[in-house]
Amino acid sequence: MQLVRSSNGQCLGHRRDAVTASRPFGHARTAYRSCRTQVLSPGKPVSEAAQTSVPPKQAAAPTGPDYTAPSRNLALELVRVTEAAALAAARWLGKGDKNCADQAAVDMMRKVLNGIPMDGIVVIGEGEKDEAPMLYCGEHIGDGTPPMVDIAVDPLDGTTLTAQGRSGAIAVMALAERGCMYDPGPCFYMEKLAVGPDVDPRRISLDYSVAHNLEAVANCLGKPVSDVTVLVLDRPRHAKLIADIRAAGARIRMISDGDVGGAIETAKPEAPVDVMMGIGGTPEGVIAAAALKCMGGSIQGRLWARNEEDAEAIRASGRDLTKILHTEDLVRGNDCFFAATGVSDGDLVRGVRFFSGGASTNSVVMRGRSQTVRYIETFHKWAGSVSNPSSPWHSQQASMMGSPSLLSNSPGPSAAVFRLDD
Q: What's the whole-model pTM score?
C-alpha cells in the first residue's frame, strides 16, 4: 500500500499495488488500472521530492506470474471432473473388476463434464461411437458456449492397477484449442521417448540408438550414464530395449501400467527418473504431451503397428509409420491444460482417502501458457451426511482450510446427482 499525493502535497488517499494480498477462496481478483498520479515516499517533503532526479527506467526483473489481467484457467475447472471420476473409481479399488471401475469413472466424468462452460469435442476418448456409449471420439462435451476446444480423456488410467489394488492409478484429462490436438485415429500404440526440461530435445531422437540417447541425456544432466534412470513399461515387447539399456550401463525402473504418470515423472523437480522409453498407448502419449508441454519437458512419438493388419489400417488413414511426432505435433500451441487426480497412491499424486461422511482427493493441474503446476488437496463431504464438528477428521480439515464453511459439500460417487457447487 502506498501513499498518493498530488503535486501540491495534498493527500489523495492510498493506492493498492497491482499484485494484491491473498484473498479468501471464491473472491475474484481485481485488475487495477495504471495511473499517472505522483507517488511519494511517506514523510518526504514535496519540494525535496520534486528536486530529486528520476533515474532512467530499466526493465523490471521477473517477479512471477502476471495477475494484473487474469484470464480463465480451464484446468481449475477440469480438476473437479477428474476428482469426480477418481472418487467413483476408487470405490472399486482391489475388488478385481476393472470393467466396473472403468465404467464408474466414465459415468461420473461424463456427468460433470457436461456442465463445464465450453464447446468441446472428444478427440481421444473411450473408443468410437459404436463402441462406447459416452465419451466416444467425436462426442460434443460442455454447454456449447466458447471456448471451442479439443478434449482428451482417460477416466481411469490404470484399470488393472485399480482392480488389483496396486499403486499409480489416476483419472486424467487434457484440453487444447480446437484443431490443436493430434487425432490418433486407428493407431493404438506408439514408440515414446520422453524427457524433462533439463534435456535438450534436439540432442535425442527415436532414430538414434538407445546408447546414443542415454549418453545425450547424461551429458545434459551432468552425470554419468550409470546414474541415469530409465522408466520402461514391463512388457515382453521391451526385451531388446531393456537389454540395450543395461548394455549402456543405465539404471531401469519398471512399471506395470500407467505411462501417462510415468512420462510426467521425468519433468518433475528432482525427478525420480530421467527418461522414459518404450512402446505404449498413443492416446496416453497425446495426454502426456499436454502435461509435458505445461512442465517444459518434451516427448517424441512414432506410430507402431502390432501386426500387418494394424499397419494397413494406419496407412489407409493417411498416417505415416516412419514419421517422428514431436511435442508440438501432438499438442500445438500453448493454450493447453492438464488435470489428474489420484485413484490409488502413486509417485505423481496420492490416492483417494475415505472418511466417515466424506473423502479427500489429491490432484495436479497444469496450464501450458504460464507453465503453472498446482497440487490441490480437496476434502469432500457427502451430501446429506451429518457433520460432527468435534470429530478428528472435521477438526483437522477445518484447521487446514481455515473455516468449516470452506469444506467441500459434494456428494459421494454413489449419489444420484453430483452437485456442482463443490
A: 0.75
